[in-house]
Amino acid sequence: MSIQFSPVIAAQPRPLPGFTSLLYVNLDELGVAASPGAVRSRASSGADLVVGPGEIVWTHAGSGIVHEEVPAEPGRELHGVQIFVNLSAKNKLTPARVLHLEPGEVPEWQSDAGDRVRVVVGSYEGVSSPLVPVEPVLMLTARDGAADHVTGLDSGADDYLAKPFSYAVLLARLRALLRRCSGPAAAR
Questions:
Q1: DSSP state at residue 95
Q2: Which helix (H) or strand (E) holds 40?
Q3: pTM confidence score
Q4: Distance linking the first and last C-alpha atoms of the chain
Q5: Is 51 left (phi over 0), alpha (psi -120 to 50) or beta?
Q6: In 3-state terms, what secondary structure has residue 180?
Q7: Triad 125, 130, 132: Cα angle to 5°
Q8: Which DSSP symbol is given to 32?
Q9: How would you write the pLDDT of the chain (188 residues) with one tens digit per residue?
Q10: CA–CA separation, 149 vs 143, rounded Å?
Q11: How far is Cα 105 from Cα 99, in angstroms, rounded to an integer?
Q12: Cα-Cα-Cα-Cα dihedral of 134, 140, 144, 146, to 10°?
C-alpha cells in the first residue's frame, strides 16, 4: 500500500476526538519493500516523531488531541497503513496519549520453519506487544481450524470469525462486542 500526501492535506492539523489512530510504516516483509520515506507525526500533546520503516505510532485521542502527519522528506514515497478506530462511548473521554515503537521494540514470534509474526498490538503465541487496545478485537481470518480459533482467542482476540462469513453474522458479532464493551445502549 502506498500513501501519497497532498500538500494541502499534509499541511492541515486535524482534531481526533474520540478516535485512536494506528500508523505502521512498512518494513521489508512478505515481499513488500521497506518504505523509502518516513512520516513526521506531531500531536498537541507535545509528541513530535519521525516514523520510519518498521515503526508504529499509536495516537489514542480519547478526549481530544490535535494531530498531523506530513512527509518527513517531501517528495519521498511512503508505504504503510493507517487504521482509525472510533472509540466506544466509555472510552471517548479517556486521557489522550501517543505511543511510539521503533522496529526493535515490536515483538516478533518466529516458527521453526522461519515464519514470522510482528506483534503490533495484542499478542500471538505468547508474544505480547506493549500496545494494548482499549477496544475489543474481532479477528477476521481465513483460518478456520479449531486450533486456529483457540490460538486467536488465547492471543487476545475478543471474538473470532472465519471466512466465508455472512455480513449479517459479522454485524451481529460487532453489536455483541459493543454490548460487552459499553453496555446494552451502545449497540443499538
A1: P
A2: strand 39-43
A3: 0.65
A4: 34
A5: beta
A6: helix
A7: 90
A8: B
A9: 444 444 434 446 666 778 888 888 877 655 556 788 888 888 888 889 998 888 888 888 888 888 888 888 888 887 888 888 888 888 888 888 888 898 888 888 888 998 888 887 777 777 888 887 777 777 778 888 888 888 878 777 788 888 888 888 888 888 887 777 664 444 33
A10: 8
A11: 12
A12: 10
Say which amino acid occupies 3.
I
Contact 124, 131 (CB under 8 A): no
CA 39 distance to own-chain centroid: 16
Q: Is the separation of the CB atoms in 43 and 66 below 8 Å?
A: yes
3-state secondary structure of 176: helix
Query: Tell me, what amino acid is at 94?
Result: T
3-state secondary structure 111-158: CCCCCEEECCCCEECCEECCCCCCCCCEEEECCCCHHHHHHHHHCCCC
What's the count of helices (H) and strands (E) in the chain, helices before strands? Answer: 3, 15
Q: Which cell numbers in the block locate residue 58?
A: 499509536
